[in-house]
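Troubleshooting: if your tokenizer reports a length mismatch, compare your output against this known-good record of 672 residues.
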Amino acid sequence: MSDDLDDLKAMMQAATPKPDAGKKAADIALARKNFADLQEARDGARQTSDRPKAGLVRGVTDMLMRMNTRGALTATTALVALGMVVVVPDWHNAPALRGAQPAVTEAEDGLADAGARREAPVPEPAEELTLDVAPAEPASDAEAPRPAPEPQVARPELGAEKRRQAAPSAVQSIAPRDLEGYADGAANTTTVGRIAQPDADGVATLPESDTEAFPRAEPNALKITAEEPVSTFSIDVDTASYGVVRSSLRAGVLPPEEAVRIEEMVNYFPYDYAAPDGDAPFAPTVSVTDTPWNPDTQLVHIAIQGEMPPVEDRPPLNLVFLIDTSGSMQAANKLPLLKQSLTLMLPQLSERDSVAIVTYAGSAGQALAPTAATEREMILGALDRLEAGGSTAGQAGLQQAYALAGEMSGEGEVSRVILATDGDFNVGISDPEALKDYIAEQRQSGTYLSVMGFGRGNLDDATMQALAQNGNGQAAYIDTLSEAQKVMVDQVSGALYPIADDVKIQVEFNPAEVVEYRLIGYETRALRREDFNNDRVDAGDIGAGHQVTALYEITPVGSPAQMSDPLRYGEAEAVSGEADELGYFKLRYKAPGEDESQLIEQPIVEGGEAGAEARFAAAIAGFGQLLRGETYLGDWGYTEAIALANGAKEEDPFGYRAEAVQLMRLAESLSR
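Known-good structure output:
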């Protein structure tokens, strides 16, 4: 058998012609000539798809470059079916390709004398912009112009495995979005880059979307008392900023400076403040202590504690949950967490309360008609059926939710719309100012609006803040089930039952005692001096059991900490009051449903040592200033903030203060 195989092999070799080197060279030369003829190389450079502003293939390539990995895979599969091949470079996995790229390559089949590959430079990706483009009016069929390309910028995407391996090291600032700030235009917005969030397996991955918007406001400037002795602002009980800060730090990045609102960080924590005594719904307490970061200045600590009426005295509650079911809500920490959060809340409601559900995605719809809060199986069934998909028709959803709340409301009852979203409103809202006016009009009818944010990556915090503040509601950010427990169980009374509307604070400092001052935080809540006595000016609201904390840093007259030069031609004198008064505190509020405000006032005098509550509030205020990169702290840093917070934790039954210390430690490590 072996001999037969050898004979067969020898016969085959004998029948095979010997290679002719000359003929091979001639064939190769002919092939190259034919290739050059077909490519029109003899007539100079031909027009290709890489022309600057033309070319069908160029347009298709640009489209694919803007897609994410999944979209590009789908499109290229379809193109292959049509017999067309488009190569899309993997920018992330081949960084070297960012420079010169081969536009046309020679065949790689062993041609010995193949020429150098022609290369065409590929520009770096342009700066990413977030633009709102209004749709053009349709033209007639005969005159229909070619539509202009949508203003987009190619942004390569990581594959799923690469996203799991990638650890974000910084948050990139990109172009501002055209959304007006929510304090008379004082705060603009900034969009920032992507942040990791857990997938279904708990692994941190990068989201598909990569823009977030936060209100942008410069830190409060130092005021010279002789020139501007009066400070006026609206109170704030929102806590969303602290949740965003925590989410960022746990993802391994420092939060964007615009996301850090110091007053919301300070007001996140429960404090042991004095309960109100008398007819007023809350009791203000004002104290003066030493400043932790500057021994030559002092802190004025303003504490307000709202009353907590008995459960049986609370009015019936009509809740309309306005739930974002758009495609961006698919992540585990968005719609699924939202469902769990609302499930925790239901046992806090009574048989006198009613619940309805409105959803919005491609269009708005009613998922649950008004139902008694005790019908939990029916409510939970409606929640369980919700699925994410479609674009975000936020305005239509708001209109339907408000209309439904109006139908449910009755005399003596409280109606509230609770918007649960990742903040990605991309359909139906073309004029933020008109939206604010609409919400303000609904507020006058007695229906308030609160906002709960979920997820990261496309969190439009600026819009959420504007909606809540114009709707007389609270803005919270829920990133964990524990935070849902805090917001929707432990503090549900404050979030749903108002005890005072349009609460404003005004402080007048005595120029004979205080040479300079600055309000720490509340940049987006600033009011004009004349707004304090104007009952038509909207301000913040306080719910049952709510607490409010505000801090001023003041510089006594004669202190070496004074940063401004004294006046050459004038000397400040106290014009009224007692000489030992540092200033005068005033607060205005309205009882719910009332049009006329009431006044609370008292002098600010020096004295006493800082208690644990004031020290902890100061530690958090210092933490926020460090995150914002403010310049008033000198050499005081995270080590000092951690020590101050640890020394003032006191009773911490839920671990909120211990968690804050851990976040300070993370921030300290990330800032090195």
